[in-house]
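Example S7 (structure tokens).
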């Protein structure tokens, strides 16, 4: 019996060396997809964070500065760009649960002046239209140099479609959402993000305002001509963009988004507008559900960097991929990379 036990023991050891562990599978999948991405010489660095079954893995590749070999790390600060909108959506969902706002509210009840233009043939724009890009607002604010100018621009917007009927991506609407959230909570939007999301989840490296030390860790990105691009300069509330974060903090954000017991998360993942057979908009989440999977995702693109952030609740998986380059096809390429990475780490 003793020899049989030893044989079984060594056999098990042998199996362990043949079959990679859970962690090795994830690391191998990340490395494979990151190196494949970097074969395209328009990309210079990539940072990837994966959360699977509660275990996190972060890996970094390439160089932040062309020719210097300075690889990013867990302390590197990336601009989240439009992934910031998911934070806006979370606070909007909390405001709904707190009964500070209601999805069916005419947005004008929260504005200090009259805006007869913010309707279409008597149909008002409602809160739910702001957070699903269905209010008929232009993509970019007509005026965005400061908050006063923003409202001046708001007065000359012309709504050309019935609110709630046509999806049209807008960076104007989330800024107005952030203003409304400030008003109902009587606190600056930046403080709301800190109080409701960052502090409770120990996301100490995620912030709008950077100090001198932070700026030394902030990525300077490139366009497809290898020209260094400027970082985003926030002049409004921050409802659309302006947050900076690290891979380790984004893992904490994944954990939040994968928490089924959190009522705010549950509300923020509600399907509010259907677009196509398996595509919905939630509180600034794009939701895809079909026979094969359910996922919540958002893309962020700014002058010199882009990222994809995706949550797969049924598989308890979160993926974030960030790069220090931005050109027309970047988002599409990153999306495919995330899809391939998901397939690789979700192999049974």
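Recovered sequence:
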């Amino acid at each position: 019996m003793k020899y049989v036990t030893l044989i079984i023991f060594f056999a098990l050891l042998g199996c362990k060396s043949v079959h990679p562990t859970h962690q090795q599978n994830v690391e191998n999948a990340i490395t494979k997809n990151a190196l494949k991405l970097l074969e395209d010489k328009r990309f210079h660095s990539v940072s990837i964070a994966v959360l699977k079954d509660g275990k996190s893995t972060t890996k970094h590749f390439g160089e932040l500065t062309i020719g210097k070999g300075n690889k990013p790390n867990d302390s590197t600060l990336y601009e989240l760009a439009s992934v910031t909108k998911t934070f806006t959506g979370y606070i909007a969902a909390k405001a709904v649960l707190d009964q500070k706002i209601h999805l069916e509210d005419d947005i004008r009840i929260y504005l200090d002046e009259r805006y007869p233009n913010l309707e279409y043939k008597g149909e008002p724009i409602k809160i739910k239209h702001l957070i699903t890009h269905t209010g008929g607002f232009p993509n970019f604010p007509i005026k965005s140099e400061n908050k006063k100018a923003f409202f001046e621009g708001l007065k000359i917007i012309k709504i050309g479609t019935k609110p709630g009927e046509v999806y049209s991506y807008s960076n104007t609407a989330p800024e107005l959402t952030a203003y409304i959230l400030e008003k109902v909570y009587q606190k600056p939007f930046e403080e709301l993000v800190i109080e409701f999301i960052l502090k409770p989840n120990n996301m100490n490296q995620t912030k709008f305002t950077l100090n001198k030390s932070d700026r030394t860790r902030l990525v300077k990105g490139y366009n497809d001509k290898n020209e260094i691009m400027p970082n985003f300069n926030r002049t409004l509330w921050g409802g659309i963009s302006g947050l900076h974060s690290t891979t380790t903090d984004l893992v904490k954000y994944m954990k939040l988004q994968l928490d089924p017991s959190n009522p705010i998360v549950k509300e923020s993942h509600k399907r509010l507008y259907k677009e196509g057979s398996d595509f919905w908009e939630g509180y600034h989440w794009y939701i895809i559900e079909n026979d094969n999977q359910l996922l919540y995702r958002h893309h962020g693109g700014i002058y010199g960097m882009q990222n994809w952030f995706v949550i797969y609740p049924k598989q308890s998986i979160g993926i974030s991929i960030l790069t220090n380059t931005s050109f027309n096809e970047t988002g599409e390429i990153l999306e495919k990379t995330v899809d391939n990475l998901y397939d690789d780490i979700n192999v049974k």
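Notes on this example. The first strand starts at residue 45 and ends at 52.
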